[in-house]
Structure formats: C-alpha cells, structure tokens
Write a structure and sequence with these properties.
The chain contains six helices and no strands. Helix 1 (about 1-35) runs antiparallel to helix 2 (about 45-65), helix 1 runs antiparallel to helix 6 (about 160-185) and helix 5 packs antiparallel against helix 6. The two termini are about 15 Å apart. It has helices spanning about 1-35, 45-65, 75-95, 100-120, 130-150, 160-185. The protein is globular. Helices cover about 80% and strands about 0% of the residues.
Length: about 180
Amino acid sequence: MASATSTAHVGTTPALRRLYVIRFVFAAAWAVLLLLAGSDLTVAARVLLFLYPAFDVVAAVVDARSARAEGPVKGLYVNIAVSSLAAVGVAVAGASGVADVLRVWGAWAVVSGLVQLLVGVARRPMGGQWAMIVSGGISVLAGASFIRSASQDDPSLSALAGYATLGGIFFLVSAIRLSRSTRRG
C-alpha cells in the first residue's frame, strides 16, 4: 500500500510544483498591481480584489484534478466553494467601502487558511507541505487582523498586498521543497 501511495504522490508532485510556482508569480504580480492601484476602491482595485479569490478557485480546481491519482482531497472542494463565495462577496463589498472589503477578505482568509492547513497536513507524506501548513495558520491570523482593522479609522487595502506576497512566498518554498523531496524519493 505504501508504494501505491508513493507512486500517486510522484505523479502528483510535478503538477503541484508547477501550480505552486504559478501561484507565487500570480500573488507577487497581484500585490504589486494592488499597491499601484492605491488604497481607494477604484475600478482597477475592485477588479484586482475580485481576481485574487477567483484565481484561487481556478488553482483549487487544477489542484483537485491533479490530486485525483491519490484520491480526492475534500478540502480542495471546500476551498473552491469558499473562494467562489469570497470572490462574489468582495465584488459586492467593493461597492460599500474598504471596511466591508476587509471584513469579507478577512473571513475568507480565516476559512481558507484553515482549509489550507488541513490539506497540508493531509499531504504531509508527499513532502514539501510544512510551508503550506504554516501559511494556513498565518492566513487565519491575518484574516482576524483584517476583520479587526476594518473597524479602525481609515482602513487600508495595503495589508492585502503583504498578505498575498507572503502567501506567494510560501507557495514558492513549497514548490522548492517538493522538488527536493522528488529528487530524494
């Protein structure tokens, strides 16, 4: 049974590594664009805010398809649903103001962080997942921080760029770690 599991992981690992690198590049580019858009809810900023969770949906779908060899990772399906709701929620909240966007984003970060943490734990035998586990935990804390900052005077979107950048770095670290575990395995 262990060799069947190992074979499934070996087949999944290259696809997951590519996905993690793409997620890093997207997060870094998105963060730069959000900072350039400024802290006002311009049309560009609202589109960017919608695109981030929408991209997360696409990434989770790709991840779920590549994970079929090892059996479906149910958390990925939860993430697809949660991120879909977040994309719609952020689009709607964008009409109300920065504080509402931060509340929706914060709730999404908490829930999706928990899911990421659980998926990372389930994938530990594959290697390269400690960064995903840590990233999921940090996402929960960051989400709570976004919700709290929404109630402050003059809330800002700039912290979301830092959140995306850090998340992207964790994806890159996981991609590198997956490369190393594949060479060892």
